[in-house]
C-alpha cells in the first residue's frame, strides 16, 4: 500500500504542529486501512498491495473552493479510476483540520484523536462507495467506524455523529482557530527508558551493556550520534544504573562494587576457570583469555576485554562497577547463582537479565534508582516516563515509571509489576508500546 499525506489550503506543512500530525498519519493510515479491510469480509476484495491512498489536510476554505460536494463536513472521501473494478486502485480522504480542531475541543479530546476518527470515517466511505453499499446505511457505517476505532485502540465518540459539526464551520488558516482548538497531539510521556537486550533487540540479535557498545550497535541502523537516540553527549542510564550520564553526556552518578566482593569474584574465576568480565565505565577487563571473552566482544560489541592476570594489580588499577560470569544456563542456575547469592549476601546482590549471564552488582542499586537520579538531574517527574523492559533487573524501573511496560517474552517477576504487557521483542513489542501508549 502506498500512503501519501500532505497539507494544503493555508496549512503550512513546515510548522512543528503540522509536521507532527503528518508523521503520525503516515503510521496511522496503513493500520486504519488494514483494520477496516480485514474486519469486514465484504470489503476483502476491495484492496490489494498496489492500492494508493492520499490523505489531504486542509482548512475549510480549501474544501469549499475545491470540493463541489462539500456540505460543511470535516471529511470528504473520493474514489479515483474505475469504480466498477473488482480491486480498488486508489482513493483520497480530505480532512478539514479547522473543523476537526473545533470538534476536538467540543468533545474534550486531542486533535489527533479527532483526525483519527475522521480518517476511519473517510476510509470506510471509500470502501462502501466502491461496494455501493453506502446509500441508506449511515447508521451501519457509524457502527463499523466505532468497531474499527476500538480495534485500533483509538478513541470513539460513543454514538455521536462522526463527521458533521453542528455549528458554523470556521474559515481561514489553522492559526485563526479560536484559542485551544488548534492543539495538536502531544506525547503522554516525555521520556522513554528502554532496556536493550531482549527488548529493543530481537532474541537472535545481540546484547549490550557499556555505553560504547550501545552507540556502536545503534550506529549500524543510524540511531546513534548527535541526531540519534544515544551518543557520548546524550543522557542515559547504563550498567544496571551504576553509571548515569546527564545533560551533555556528563557523568553524574557512579557506584563501584565492594572491593572485597570483587576480589572474591576474581579469585573464583581463576580457580574455577569460569569466564568473568569486569565493567569499568567504558572499558572491560578479565583475568585470562577465554573463548567467551572474545564472543562477548565480537557478537555483543562490548569493548574488547583487557587482561590483567594479577588480582592485586587488577584491583588497584581498575574501579569495578560490576562483574559478570559467562556460562551456559544450566551451570548458571544450578551452580553459580546459588553460590553467589549466598556468598555476597549483605555485601552485594545477584541479578540476571539473560539466562547465560550472571551479574554481581553493588548492594541496593538498580536501573530504577539510576533512572530516578537522571530524572532529578533533568528536573523531570516519573509520571512523564514510559519504561519498557523484560528482565528481573527492569522491575524497579517499571515500578518507578508513570507507565511500566513489560514484553510478553519477559520474566514473570517483571510482568507481575508492569502496568501493561505488550508483544514480545520478536514481534516488535517496543514499537507496539510506543505506538499504542505514547
UniProtKB/TrEMBL annotation:
Any one Gene Ontology MF annotation carried by this entry is: metal ion binding
Gene3D superfamilies attached to this UniProt entry: 3.30.1240.10, HAD superfamily/HAD-like, Metalloproteases ('zincins'), catalytic domain
Q: Please provide the Gene Ontology terms (biological process) for this protein.
A: rRNA processing
Does the record bear Nuclease in its keywords? yes
InterPro entries, from UniProt?
HAD-like_sf, HAD-SF_hydro_IIB, HAD_sf, MetalPrtase_cat_dom_sf_prd, YbeY
What keywords tag this UniProt record? Endonuclease, Hydrolase, Metal-binding, Nuclease, Zinc
Cofactor(s) required, per the database record: Zn(2+)
Q: Which domain of life is it from?
A: Eukaryota
Q: Which family does it belong to?
A: Belongs to the endoribonuclease YbeY family.
Query: Which protein are we looking at?
Result: Uncharacterized protein
